[in-house]
Design brief:
Layout: E1 35-38, E2 43-48, E3 53-58, E4 65-71, H1 81-88, E5 98-100, E6 106-113, H2 128-133, H3 143-153, E7 165-167, E8 190-196, E9 200-206, E10 223-228
Antiparallel strand pairs: 1-10, 2-9, 3-8, 3-10, 4-7, 4-9, 5-6, 6-8
């Protein structure tokens, strides 16, 4: 008789890194105007009130940020890339666009973007299984676990692993439907600003991908962020 497979728990990380100890506060509330760092290969979560603006900074210009947002009072509602693409009629949001949830409700709005505007909404977050497929031996830091750990660090649990908004990720799609892994075209110091339209928990991961070209030629690096009223 075969052993029953263990039940999948979306909140349970496959491994650990410093993300578990990086909470900006016990509940994720930021100091307004304070600048925070997301160390290379790690993630952080922040609790936003409606109207607040989260500004994410790319110090190197080549670092991708996997981004998620969950409604604070019901984590089962979250930013949904498949619903976003339907709402926009294109794959990449621009300043002024609202980012919608899996219930087709706007949760955030893109207020500003100093980069050329090349981002990704089609690729799933990297995870332990992805790195094993790429040939990694042993545990490899990954955005899926960074999401899980960043939420655990502020006393919350991921209800599932939504597809992220991959900020600065450059995965062009050809006319035949194929796509390529390319280095970001963003520049050092580029900033994207996202306004919360309702109270939500935003999670950012400094993507640790070092086995494809999505973070450019340099090793994965840190990100920065701040929140303004």
């Amino acid at each position: 008789m075969h052993e029953a497979a263990s039940k999948f728990d979306p909140a349970r990380p496959d491994g650990q890194n410093a993300t578990l100890t990086l909470a900006i506060s016990a509940d994720g509330r930021p100091g307004i105007g304070e600048v925070y760092e997301i160390p290379a290969r790690c993630g952080r979560a922040v609790l936003l009130e409606a109207g607040e603006v989260l500004s994410i900074v790319n110090p190197s210009g080549s670092q991708v940020c996997d981004f998620w947002a969950f409604r604070a009072d019901d984590m089962r509602e979250f930013l949904s890339m498949e619903h976003l693409r339907t709402a926009l009629g294109r794959t990449i949001p621009r300043p002024g666009d609202e980012l919608v949830s899996n219930r087709r409700v706007p949760l955030m709005r893109v207020e500003a973007d100093s980069s050329p505007g090349v981002h990704d909404t089609i690729i799933a977050a990297c995870d332990a299984a992805r790195y094993r497929q790429l040939g990694a031996e042993g545990y490899h830091d990954n955005c899926t676990d960074n999401l899980r750990m960043a939420l655990l660090a502020i006393g919350r649990e991921a209800p599932e692993i939504p597809s992220p908004f991959n900020i600065w990720m450059n995965v062009p799609v050809s006319g035949d439907g194929s796509f390529a892994w390319r280095a970001p075209v963003s520049q050092p110091g580029d900033v994207i600003a996202l306004r919360a339209l309702t109270s939500c928990v935003a999670v950012m991961s400094a993507c640790p991908q070092d086995m494809t070209a999505v973070n450019g030629a340099a090793p994965p690096g840190p990100l920065g962020f701040s929140v303004t009223a």
